[in-house]
Amino acid sequence: MTGTALTPVLSEHWDREDLYTLDGYRAVGGYGALRKALAMEPDALVDLVKASGLRGRGGAGFPTGMKWGFLPKDNPNPRYLVVNADESEPGTCKDIPLMMANPHALVEGVIISAYAIRSSHAFIYVRGEVLHVIRRLRRAVEEAREAGLIGTDILGSGFDLDVVVHAGAGAYICGEETALLDSLEGYRGQPRLKPPFPAVAGLYASPTVVNNVESIASVPPIVANGAEWFTSMGTEKSAGFGFFSLSGHVTRPGQYEAPLGVTLRELLDMAGGIRAGHRLKFWTPGGSSTPIFTEEHLDTPLDFESVGAAGSMLGTRALQIFDETTCVVRAVGRWIAFYAHESCGKCTPCREGNFWMVQVLDRLENGEGTEADVEKLLDICDNLLGRSFCALGDGAASPVMSSIKYFRDEYIRHMEERGCPFDHSESTVWGGSK
Amino acid sequence: MSEGFDDATRARLEVDAKEVIARYPKSRSALLPLLHLVQAEEGYVSRAGIGFCADVLGLTAAEVTAVATFYTMYKRRPMGEYHVGVCTNTLCAVMGGDEIFAALKEHLGVGNDETTEDGKVTLEHLECNAACDFAPVMMVNWEFFDNQTPESAKRLVDDLRLGNDVAPTRGAGPVCTWKQASRVLAGFSDGRAGEGPQAAGPSLEGLKLARERGWTAPAPGAAGPAPTEGGDR
Ligand SMILES: Cc1cc2nc3c(=O)[nH]c(=O)nc-3n(C[C@H](O)[C@H](O)[C@H](O)COP(=O)(O)O)c2cc1C
Ligand code: SF4
Ligand code: FES
């Protein structure tokens, strides 16, 4: 087996100190793709992104060009582009460093994408809890405006665009695209019934495209280098490159930009392996909402199809790595506490189900549970999966069901030993070498 | 506590509010930033703040309250000068976030969502803040304080309480106050975007390795799979 090499594209210049300034970005060729794009017909750009096979980097993997193509041609309302920069799925930590180091990459992507879908009003909805990223983004938009890259008649093309950076206020559910739109309209962030999809009735009931930060930032390099260049990386159905974010019990956690289809074994090798003296126990391929994997999945290609076939989802490529010092019951309990806290309360399976799972998992973790409790969890998950109003509810079932599948023994051990068999201090950064 | 802002405050905030509202095609979209704005004024969203937002947007106080209570960043009680958050979502908790949070509770003598008597620090545990590769993570007024330990966390809050300058690992240092942070969130620049590094530590690991091994994305036009072996550097 030949090893996969990293393919830094969006992160290629992150070690350049002034990259976040317009001058710094221009010095590495920034806004070159914009000139090229503005010389093209908008529809040709949509076709180009379709041909590239780019799939959404926000979790679901929907083909980006196809999404753009869904905008109705005959709707007289203004069209909107909304960038989803809410990044809150536990484990996901790629968009934030991207916007911190290279905000102009996103801004250039926004301008090109808005031009392609014929929108003259774009919003970047960024989670509120990242003050400095918000400063950098706003400054980048301002600089672009001062340079005539945003505003009226951009670079003499006749294309007008306004870009607004909008700070959220702390709610995971606002990452769900329709909840995000409600939030952007000034309401509580609660998911809407789909259909109609945002392409038909999105922001202010107008045709809207919602895309993830990394998706939009991938557009300029595709425009600059062509669809074939993009498809030369990755697999047939999962084209291109993406961030693989390694966190947890690895020697060198961080952002590794690689072709889709790379394996965890390869990535761990690059990251110096599991921390010294320990071994892999379980991991998430794409954030807490994707069923956990174990050692047996080390060689599963991390592309949409292969991860799906192995029983999980590629999600956001948020690889949270846990070694043998980690109690899986505790890990899952904490995630479910998160889902319970973040449930928007709109539908019963999610609101009630997560509330009950917190109680049951607490009992189990403290060694006060029974085998009937494990069955009860599976029962609740049955009710969540496919029956909740949005994917937050489905996501909550993932860690519970998969952990019981791979680690039922460990749930039982908590009962037998009437408490957690783990010394939690050993899983900490400073406790690992004990 | 009075029901509304005094005339001078109100007049000043109305100018700001107008600027915020002008950014959006529909005025109600300005509600979230306006709530940040009134929070910047008082440190929390008071009845006066709610009333102000309702007035400028033509909404009822009940409509504004329903929104304000939905979002965890809006606080309903006066806050300390520094909001100190500790991530206790699974990854950070496992890596030591739980120990950090416990140590700070004891050290400060406050519980979750409580403020020290000197009014300096409000402690809160947080959900994942998109910095898991820097675990365990803390936030002060929503600036990143990466790779913390119980000891570094205690030093950090001591410095904050003593009024010593404290700089985030990735952000603008010295760290601004809670009210100043809220004003930036409302959309008013403090001119500090250029402070702090562009990237640090884990964000650069992949790139560093690629440079060491001479790995790059394929050159445009040179279709074919990405190079599979180390380069010639
Ligand atoms: C609970 C929940 C949270 C989500 N959070 C995010 C997020 O933070 N960022 C994001 O891009 N997509 C998030 N999504 C996915 C979005 O709904 C949507 O699919 C995505 O923004 C589309 O962009 P893409 O096609 O470019 O991936 C979330 C979905 C759910 C159900
Ligand atoms: S699944 Fe949960 S988050 Fe989604 S609509 Fe239902 S209650 Fe709200
Ligand atoms: S789990 Fe703490 S930052 Fe992600």
Characterize the structure shown.
The complex is a heterodimer of chains A (434) and B (233). With 434 residues, chain A is α/β, with parallel strands linked by helices. Chain A folds into three domains: 22-231, 3-Layer(aba) Sandwich (Rossmann fold), CATH 3.40.50; 241-322, Ubiquitin-like (UB roll) (Roll), CATH 3.10.20; 328-425, NADH-ubiquinone oxidoreductase 51kDa subunit, iron-sulphur binding domain (de novo design (two linked rop proteins)), CATH 1.20.1440.230. Chain A has helices at 22-27, 32-38, 42-52, 64-69, 95-101, 103-116, 131-146, 177-184, 213-217, 219-225, 227-231, 264-270, 304-309, 328-342, 348-365, 371-384, 391-416, and strands at 80-85, 121-126, 162-167, 208-212, 241-248, 254-259, 280-284, 293-294, 318-323. Chain A has a five-stranded mixed beta sheet with strand order 6-5-9-7-8, with helices on one face. In chain A, strands 3-2-1-4 form a four-stranded parallel beta sheet, with helices on both faces. In chain A, helix 7 (131-146) links the parallel strand 2 and strand 3 (162-167). The longest helix of chain A is centred in the C-terminal third of the chain and has 26 residues, at 391-416. Chain A is globular, with a radius of gyration of 22 Å. The mean pLDDT of chain A is 97. With 233 residues, chain B is an alpha+beta fold. Chain B has two domains: 1-79 and 178-192, Arc Repressor Mutant, subunit A (Orthogonal Bundle); 82-176, 3-Layer(aba) Sandwich (Glutaredoxin), CATH 3.40.30. Chain B contains eight helices and five strands; from the N terminus they run H-H-H-H-E-H-E-E-E-E-H-H-H. Chain B has helices at 7-21, 31-42, 47-57, 61-68, 90-108, 150-162, 178-185, 205-213, and strands at residues 82-87, 114-115, 121-126, 138-140, 143-145. In chain B, strands 2-3-1-4-5 form a five-stranded mixed beta sheet. In chain B, a hairpin with a 5-residue loop joins strand 2 (114-115) and strand 3 (121-126). In chain B, helix 2 runs antiparallel to helix 7 and helix 3 (47-57) crosses helix 4. Classes of the chains: A alpha/beta (434), B alpha+beta (233). At the A-B interface, helix 5, helix 7, strand 3, strand 5 and strand 6 of A face helix 2, helix 5, helix 7 and helix 8 of B. FE2/S2 (inorganic) cluster binds at residues 87, 89, 91-92, 128-129, 131-132, 135, 137 of chain B.
